[in-house]
Write a structure and sequence with these properties.
Number of helices: 12
Helix content: 40-55%
Number of strands: 6
Shape: elongated
Order of helices and strands: HHHHHHHHHHEEHEEEEH
Structural class: alpha+beta
Largest sheet: 6 strands, mixed
Strand content: 15-25%
Length: 292
């Protein structure tokens, strides 16, 4: 069970979903305990075996994810991680936080990075995460992906190119926080001009309601359109409280209604301008923010 934290970290980065990562870990352990004691004792590296099995389950899930996403209502955004580096195991009202369930916060889980991972093929994503993030040698990655080490090296290289072409250099945390704070203040004031000034002219705002709550079905594009969209939202929901928080390791915002989190927003900031806003409203993805 000492490997649980590592498996949760791996599953979240591979799938972008805490709930799916938890399911993968449960399935992995089910396969472990389905073996006889003699079979388990014959495995030289239990941690390596668990990682290999969990990675293969994730690879299978990623392979079917495209079909599942086609049925998803509106845009799909990875589940946001709260500031505390742990999440609640089980369902609301269930068990308490388990220290073994911690998800380590680093650059490989910021929202912009996870969005780029979504553009990769399943094999690219698994090869890249296992090698570049978790430092597995390509020989071991090859066993998991079912390709040669040379092919896995190429997959990871292709993944790195995607990241280089999709991501600008990271904005310093204080600069990122200042932009998000200014956005919050302008949003609360319904100051459209101030919002436009904070947004990149080609900015994009994406919402994820999953068909369970109201959210824009397609991204809102352009600084003025986004500014007006958020100002209208502020007018339509005057009782909502906006709080500054950390989302996936970076400054973000949380919207609460009567003390309940109804939206979590992550930001991509370049210089002093906001380039992208991701707003997760799907209540199924806000479980870590509403329990415990």
């Amino acid at each position: 069970m000492s490997e649980r934290r590592q498996l949760i970290n791996l599953g979240y980065r591979l799938l972008g979903s805490l709930a799916d990562a938890e399911d993968v870990v449960q399935e992995t352990y089910a396969r472990w305990y389905a073996m006889s004691r003699q079979q388990r004792e014959a495995i030289e590296s239990p941690g390596g075996w668990l990682t290999k099995v969990a990675s293969r389950i994730c690879l299978d899930l990623l392979g079917s994810a495209r079909a599942r996403r086609e049925r998803y209502v509106g845009e799909w955004i990875p589940e946001p991680l709260p500031d505390r580096t742990e999440w609640i195991s089980g369902r609301p009202g269930g068990s308490t936080a388990d220290p073994a369930d911690r998800v380590t916060l680093d650059e490989s889980i910021n929202m912009a990075f996870l969005i780029v991972l979504e553009s990769m093929t399943p094999a690219e994503r698994v090869a890249f995460i296992l090698h570049d993030v978790f430092r597995y040698p390509f020989a071991e990655v090859a066993e998991i992906v079912g390709r040669t080490p040379a092919a896995c090296r190429q997959l990871a290289s292709s993944a790195r190119r995607r990241i280089r072409t999709s991501q600008a250099p990271a904005t310093p945390a204080d600069q990122h926080a200042a932009a998000v704070r200014a956005f919050k203040q302008a949003w609360e004031a319904k100051d459209i001009d101030a919002l436009i000034g904070l947004l990149d002219p080609d900015a994009m705002a994406t919402g994820d309601g999953g068909g369970l709550v109201t959210a824009a079905l397609r991204p809102v594009e352009g600084a003025e359109q986004i500014a007006r969209f958020f100002a209208d939202r502020a007018s339509a929901a005057p009782d909502v409280t906006i709080l500054e928080c950390t989302v996936n390791g970076r400054p973000g915002l949380v919207a609460q209604l009567d003390g309940v989190t109804v939206s979590v927003m992550a930001f991509d900031v370049a210089g002093d301008r906001i380039k992208h806003i991701w707003a997760v409203l799907n209540p199924d993805k806000l479980r870590p923010w509403t329990t415990g």
